[in-house]
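Shipment paperwork, digital attachment
Item: protein structure file
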Amino acid sequence: MVMDTLARDRRLAVVKLRPGYEAAYASKPAVHAVAGAGEIVSWERLATGRYNILLKGDCRVRIESERPSDTLYRIVTAQRLDDVPPVGDVVPMVDRIRGACGRLLKALDRPADLLGTALADGQPPGAIADRIAAAVLPDAALRQELLETLAVTRRLERLSGALDDLVNELLGGRE
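Attachment content:
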């Protein structure tokens, strides 16, 4: 799959810079091999000429190569990465994630329904894991690890453990 072809058709973007990119931001800093790809649903041009974008994630990709370009953005050839479907019943793990999110929101004194859309019934378990990880986890390395985890069951297990750890940390070990 060539991402620049999709970009022309669907305003697709792949965004995943490696930590420490700031020093080389004006050039071409290193990127992670696995990234998220999706449709740009909103954008704002900044006074500097750069943009803030809001991306609706569509899939994971592995960047295979970068194509020559004289643009400020990068053009890559990437391969779509499909989830490995859950093994067995993952409802208990999803319920554990919902419970941890409820405890997290309570610990932060936030509205209980703040993550309602991300946790709504009827969504694929992998999508719930992806949305919660993106919205809640402060550790960029952990978010990248989860992005690179194709097995949905493993991703749910890792996320639920990370959420439990986060809640425990916020509550000072009282949970």
